[in-house]
Each structure stands twice: as structure tokens, then as C-alpha cells.
Amino acid sequence: MTSRPIEWINRWINERWPLSAVLRLAIDEEIPGGSRFVYTDGSAVFLLFTLQAITGILQVLFYVPTVDHAYDSLNYLRTEVPFGWLIHGMHFWGANLMIVVLALHMTRAFIWGAYKKPRELVWLAGVLLLLVTMGFSFTGSPLTWDQHGYWAGEVGTSIAGTIPVVGDMQKRLLRGGEGMGQLTLSRFFALHTMVLPLLLVSAFGLHIIAFKVRGTVGPWDALKRRLSGPFWPDQVYKDVLTGSAIFILLIFLSVFVPPVFWGPVDILDTNYVPKPDWNFLFLYQVLKYFQGPLEPVGTVGVPTVIVLLFVTLPFTDRNPEKNPFRRPLVMLCGFIFAVTITALTLLGYYSRGLAELPAGSPAVSSLLGPDDAGAAKTPSVSQPSDQSAPAQKTGGMPSATVETNSRTMPGEGAHVIGNAERGGAVFGNYCAGCHGAKGAGGMQNPGSDEGKVPQLNPVEREIYNKDPKAFAENLDRFIQHGLVPPGKKPLLSMPAFGDTHGLTQQQIANVEAYIMSLNGIDRGQIVNPGMEPRNFFILVASVYILMLFIQGGIRIKSGIP
Amino acid sequence: MEHDSQIPEMGHVEATRRRFLKWLIAVLAAVNALIAGIPFLRSLLGPSVAAQKNEWSKVAAVDLLPQDSPVDMRFMAESGEAYLHNTVLRSVWVIKHSPEKISVFSPVCTHLGCYYQWNGQADRFECPCHASVFAPDGKVISGPAPRPLDTLESKIENGYLLVKWENFKAGVPTKIPVA
Ligand code: FES
Known about the structure:
The complex is a heterodimer of chains A (561) and B (179).
Chain A: H1 5-16, H2 19-27, E1 30-32, H3 40-60, H4 70-80, H5 84-111, H6 120-140, H7 147-161, H8 167-175, H9 182-214, H10 222-225, E2 228-230, H11 231-256, H12 281-289, H13 295-316, H14 328-350, H15 370-373, H16 390-393, H17 420-430, H18 432-435, H19 468-481, H20 505-518, H21 533-558
Antiparallel strand pairs in A: 1-2
Helix pairs in contact in A: 3-5, 3-11, 4-5, 5-6, 5-11, 6-9, 6-13, 7-8, 11-21, 12-13, 12-14, 17-20, 19-20
Chain B: H1 12-45, E1 56-61, E2 71-81, E3 84-96, E4 102-105, E5 117-119, E6 124-126, E7 133-134, E8 140-142, E9 153-157, E10 160-164, E11 167-168, E12 177-178
The structure holds FE2/S2 (inorganic) cluster.
Residues 109, 111-114, 127, 129-130, 132, 143-145 of chain B line the site of FE2/S2 (inorganic) cluster (FES).
């Protein structure tokens, strides 16, 4: 037994498990031409994958994959769990950044000719990783089960359904039934958190082992290739620097550009124009050019061709030359491909959806219940509703919740984080008539004690509350159950939008978010941040700057170049 | 490995036996995979339940419906999806032609299942998703919708309009009820 315990442990392990050999395989590498910052893109992808795994696991501890809890449980994490905002923000931005960095990584492999013999398998495993990542993105979005994610999933699975012959089965497989529902959410959850991670790890193993066999391509210039530098620690140091930059970028984005609260899923809200996530926009745009009987060309043909192009690249381009300046044709093709995808993405982004509808404003009359239908032409002048709201009169159906029967309790809408922008549209259609545009001034209400419809901007003192949840509840009571203002014979009264189903609970949540935003309160405000996001960012930035100085000082003092 | 190196010296019978064993391993593995795989895959395709038979829902008082103009009527109805049994808000489009004759349309676009809306100015239904346009009688005017709007079964009882909710398969030219 030796006196140095570390050596002893090392030997003990190596006699039983090839630790040193594995480590050597991992870090022993001479990089032709030496370490460079451009080579850090691969480890950046790796870092992002790792971060997604960590933030993903943390989210699963709070998130509930059911249709009635998904959105709310995620929002609980985002607003009420200390640093929940950071966890979700990093996962969201990490997912987006991953696609960008992966695209860069593949572009570099393309330009450097890293897909050429004998590195075909490295490239193929890389293509597999790209597909898995797109799968993550596709299955991740609907997990939020908000307006955006739900429709992204609905559109995406519908696209799968247009594939000839197997499409129908494919759609059923993805959705777990005909329509989008709980089974769909369960499947997306299982794919996103179990199936795809396993695939990813396998593809990553393939990729990295194949890469280790042949190593980096290095510079195409033979002169530069003469020298070489070690992977450890030279390249790893650069990798860590890039990784740190990505890390701080993710935190920056999470703090200053948090993901949007899209509002709960509401299939009855026909004003929402579904669009897929940005990384699928090119496909979405392509679909517009192939309609009717040609539809499968866009939905299956184009994606298949793209994947085939990627997969066959190492076998179609067999020219061993790596210098991009000596293979102009391939470079040109790659360039055209990149420009096409970018252009389609931008077109998709700026298009107003596939419909050419005017900024939709459904006739208010058409949405009110039968009791109000008579007054439909002037919906804002609805008569004080009697106790029998249509819901109760028209069928004796059990109401959604006990609360909606009670005339004083807030309803479901109060507890859901709505989207203020969508609420604004609803407000314009249903509320502005009496409460004034942007709730700024109520119209006259003869016969009521106050003589005016209350203005909502600013809202009455008793209703206002700094706590977004309490504020929403205060507003909710009126929107759910309506109100006949005190007075002899008020001309106008507040309709019971919730009780009559004139508005869905989701719309009510959105309207509440809007009214609150008029009063300077953010419905999605972080109640329990752990640390104020801004302060957190300042702290993180200071730590990095401090470290920069410290290492600079050490370098100068000890004369390290 | 050690065993393979003996192959040149081993007898013909032994070689056949090994070849047979390899073949058997492959077949057994394949059979096992199929025995488990087919039922497992079947589970993913879901139960092939017949379209759910729904109850009549009271939707509106006939007197109060406007004449000849489509109204989006909302009502609470039981919905069962897999193991979830909820009361959900449903919406249907109702057009009263006369007190006896009322058409009821499912609010779901026949193309890919978005909810369409009524454009009062142009007197037509429009779908926000892929711009299918339908006439007030449900016929397709333009867009990718493969069939007219789906009508729902309805009846009038004691002055109330009753409707039976149903889902139909999206994207196909015929109206097929689905679960
Ligand atoms: S879903 Fe209505 S047009 Fe496509």
C-alpha cells in the first residue's frame, strides 16, 4: 500500500475498471492546427443539452402533465417557486439557443468538410441529433398547454395526419385519439421526457465515439496543420469560456426577455391564429404553397427531401478536397439551402397566418346567450339579468364548478394567468362599449346612483390590489356574476359573462390580465422570485467580472501568457 | 472468441449444431419481440371505441333565437375523454329559419378542426386557420375544407332547442362520427 491515498484509489479502481483508459480516450487528443474558438460550438451544444436535462428534471418536480393542471402548474413554478422563473427561462431559451448553436455546428462541419470520408458516421449521428432536437422542440411546446403550445401541437399533428396511407395512424399514434386531449398531452410528455432523452443519449454516444476515432478535421490549410495543440487543457479552456458566455446569455434572456404567458387553451377563441414555433416556420410556409391535392408534397415531400439531402451528403459529395474555396459548387448549394430556409422562416414569421381575415371581431351578438339575444343589436345595454342565467335555465346541466353557481365567489378564470394582449381584444369587443376604450371612461348610466358606468383605468380603490392574485379575484366576481348597480332603475348593468358563458373562463382570465395591465399590475408577475431577476443578473455579471480581474491579476503576477 | 478459434478442428456435427443455435437465437428473439411488440403497439393506437352516444343538451329557447342569423350558442355538456369526465363548455352555430326549422352546425371546421367564426359583413363563415369559407347553409365557398359544415342532430321540445353533440373526423370528404 502506498502512502498517497489518491494514487492508491486510482490503482484500486484501474485494476477493476479501466478508468485511466476511458479518461485518456476522453481528453487525450492532439488537435491539428491547435485549439481554436470556432471549435467550441460542439461543446456548446453539449453544455446546452446538459443544462436542458438539469432544468428539465427540475421542472418535472413541479409540472403536472394533465390538461387541467399543466398550464397552472407551470405558472406556479414560474411565479411562486423561488428561482422557478430562472429554471423555466433557461429551459425555454436553452431550447431555442440549442437549435441555433446546432445549426452553427452543422454549418461549420459543412464548411470544414467534416462530413467527408472517413467521418461519415460522425455526420450521420449529427443529423440524427438534429432530428431528435427538432423532436424535442415539437413535443416540448405543447407541454405548456397554453394557446400557443396547444395550437402548435394541433397543427403539427394534423400535418402528420396528411401523410398518405399511414397519416391517419400516425396522427392517432401521436394524439392517442382523434382529437387533441389528455392522451395527447401524456404522449408528448412521455416522448419529451423519456423517449427522446434516451434517443439523444444514444445518438450522442454514436456521434462522440465516431468523432473520437478520427478526431477533428482541423484546418484545411496544410501549412497550419503541421503544428498541433492538445485538447486538454487548451481547447477545453476555450470551451469553458464559450460555455460561460452561453450561460450568462441564457440568464440574461431569462431575466430580461422571459417567455410569454400565452393564456390558457381556449378552443372556442376563434381569434387566435395558430402558428408553429420559429424553427418550424419554414415548413409552415412551404405548406402554403402546396394546397389541395398537392398537400402531401409540402407535408411529407419537402421534409423528406431535406432529411435525405442531409443523410446522403457524405455519399453524394465524395470529393476529398476540404478547402471550401476549392469546392465552390458545394458551398454554393449549401448557401442557397441556408438562404432558402432563412427566407421561408422570415416569410412565415411576418405572414398573418394562412387566413386573410380582418383583425377578427366576431359579432358580439352572436356570442351572447339566448336571454341576451334579443338585446343583441346593442349588447352593451343588456337589461339587468334575472336570477335565471341561461346556463341554469337551459338544461339543468351541472355547472363546471360549484363556484360558478355561487354569485359571490370568484370563478375558475380568477386563478389562471391570462394573456393581457388577447384580453385587450376581448375587452374591445365586449367591455369597451360601456367602460370606454381602454377602460378610461364609463358612459352615462341614467337611473343608477352613480350615474355612470365605473371606469376601469384606474379601477376603483376597493378592487385594486398590488397582489396580482387578489386583484384578479376582485375583478373576477363582477365578470363572472355581473352586477345590477344600485339605483332606482339603472339603464345599464354588468352582464354575468361567466354565468351566462358569454365569455369562456379563459377569455375572462385574459380580460382580467388586461384590466390589471391597465392599472400597472402584471398578471404574470413573479410573486416569489427567490431573488429579484434583475438583481440576480447583476450579481452574476459581477461575479464574472470579478473573476476576469482575479485571473488577469494572477497572470500578470506570475507571468503566465 | 476462445471457442471460435477451435472451429477448424471441430467436427461437422458440432458446426451444424452451432449454426442451428444461432438461427434459433434469432428466431426466438424475433418471436419474443413480436409477442410483446404487437400488443404494446396496439395499446398506442388506442381503443377502437364506437362514436360516443351523447345525450340531448338543451341549447336555447326557440323564441329568443334571432330569425335567419347565425348565433353561437354555448351550453354545458358532459364530455368523456378516456378516463376524464368533465362538464365542458360547448358551442354550436344555430340558424333559425322558422320556429320549426332550425339548422345546427358543429363549430369545428371540417378541414383540420379549428373553430370557425361568422363574418356578419360578408354573410359567411370563415375559418381562421387555413381560410376555409362556408356559406350560411354550410356549403364550402372556398379554401381547403373537404366537405360542408357538419350538421348536428337537433329537435325542438317544449319551445327549447335540443342538440346532440358529436365529433366528426376532420379532413375527409365524408362525415364520419368519431369518439
Ligand atoms: S382548419 Fe379550418 S381551414 Fe383549416
